[in-house]
Amino acid sequence: MIKFIRSLYFGRRVFYALFGISLLFLISFWFQPLYSITWIITAILGVLVLTDIVALYSKSSISADRLLPEKFSNSDENTVEIQIKNDYGFKLHAEVIDEIPIQFQKRDFLRSIELQSGKKIRFEYLLKPLKRGEYVFGNLNIYVFSILKLAKRRFVYNKDQMVKVYPSFIQMKKLDFMALDQKINMHGIKKIRRIGHTMEFEQIKEYVRGDDVRTINWKATAKHKQLMVNQFQDERSQPVYSIIDSGRMMKMPFEGLSLLDYAINSSLAFSNIALKKKDKVGMLSFSNKMDKLQKASSKLSQLNRIMEALYNVDTGFYDSDFSLLYSRIKKNITHRSLLMLYTNFEHISALNRQLPYLKAIAKNHMLVVIFFENTEMTKLTNITPENISESAHQTVAEQFAHNKLLMAKELQRHGIQTLLTPPKDLSVNAINKYLEIKARGLL
């Protein structure tokens, strides 16, 4: 009985009808013949409501399911599919209310649909998570009512479904083609001129205009009676690490995502490209203590291991310990490697405190320090100030922007590769930097 009461609701038409009947009873106080007519209308309404309830609570039912992907991609649109089948012998109207995870703070989800008898209907909606972790869906509530729309019956399905939100693997797949030598032209992707020959021999081919004459193979030329040149490919199986600072400076938000999320999405896309270039990839995260360490490997399963290690990494309110990072790298990364360090410095004094450790790391490894432009400050530098207050804000913003450039120059002066980038362009710029290092044979 309690289950029946909890599932039964009345439609708006019932309340409108009751309001009208109440009004008629009030009028019948002065107009006596209306009193009997009002009771007849009330009886008719009661019969119709009872009929509607009996029809909805017959042995027939509906079936529904919420179909979730195995995992969500952070900062991307993810599809959730709802399937509903009407097993009643008549057409139904339905209102679908899905209890979306609290992280989205969305409490107005409502879909109104028609369900033909014996037919199945599907519809989709999109969710864009902005934080990694576990997301729990509540009830899938479906309120069905007949053509009379006097009573509603609630069906509940798929309570407490959980889906994990991983770093952006959709972005990773979009950037897959950057691993190819013949890259498609795309805004932000640079063609890197190859210099030097610190690369592995690949094949001998016919000379074409533009080939380096220093690569001519004279023995093959004499044999084939035409110019032949040696062709080289990038060195493979080189260890490449993504090092992610998860300290308080990476908590800063830009366009809904924290700097840490940008760094994690970029490191995943970058690791995918490095694997396709036949290099070994690994990752390391740290703040005031060492969090995750994944040794470099070229196995295909390495990307999944990195994804599992990264999906739950979070920022704290502690300053990052670069001395601890240096000691951990010295102990665990013994071969010369490419280290892509994702961090952030907002003032040159903060960089100067960590510079001795960065220089020590760069002695044994190819270190690339990646830090972020403050895009909000950059916007202030481009406005036309209209009063003294705006002029003061612009001056401070210009000082911050200038400090960022000084920090990049200071790192380069000590032989440390640097990448200063807006957060939204991080993935493309990081991959470009990796391809540049490979092309120049710096590692």
Give a written overview of the molecule.
The chain has twelve helices and 21 strands. The chain has 443 residues and is α/β, with parallel strands linked by helices. It has four domains: 2-56, no CATH class; 62-166, Sandwich (Immunoglobulin-like), CATH 2.60.40; 169-192 and 235-440, Rossmann fold (3-Layer(aba) Sandwich); 200-233, no CATH class. It has a six-stranded mixed beta sheet, sandwiched between helices. Helix 2 packs antiparallel against helix 3 (34-56), helix 6 (259-276) packs antiparallel against helix 7 and helix 6 (259-276) packs parallel to helix 12. The termini are far apart. Mean pLDDT is 87; it is low at 181-186 and 191-197.
User: CATH superfamily assignment of the largest domain?
Assistant: von Willebrand factor, type A domain
Shape call = elongated
Q: What name is given to the CATH topology of the largest domain? A: Rossmann fold
Q: What is the CATH first-level class name of the largest domain?
A: Alpha Beta
Count up the helices: 12
Biggest β-sheet, characterized? 6 strands, mixed
Keywords: Membrane, Transmembrane, Transmembrane helix
Domain DUF58: 204-370
InterPro entries: DUF58
Pfam family, one: DUF58
Entry keywords:
443 residues, alpha/beta, 4 domains, 5-stranded antiparallel sheet, 12 helices, 21 strands, 37% helix, elongated, transmembrane, DUF58
